[in-house]
Amino acid sequence: MAQKKQKKKVRQIGKKKAQKKPLIDPKYKNTFWTIIILVILLIFFIVNNTRHEPEQGPYPPGYKPVNVETNSNN
Length: 74
Fold this sequence. Notes:
rod-shaped; 0% strand
């Protein structure tokens, strides 16, 4: 009778595939991205509220604009 040929498995002792080490530990991945997003939002908030742009457009009738820089001694 015909015998089946068996493939011999080659044992690789001491040879392991190099595993990619993640840059960020997966346990802290969500925390890292949350902090990054909050820092970016904080930067946008600070930039948006510290710029001084001149007011545009005409004022409504009877409106007197209040200047914070001038003293009113009336």
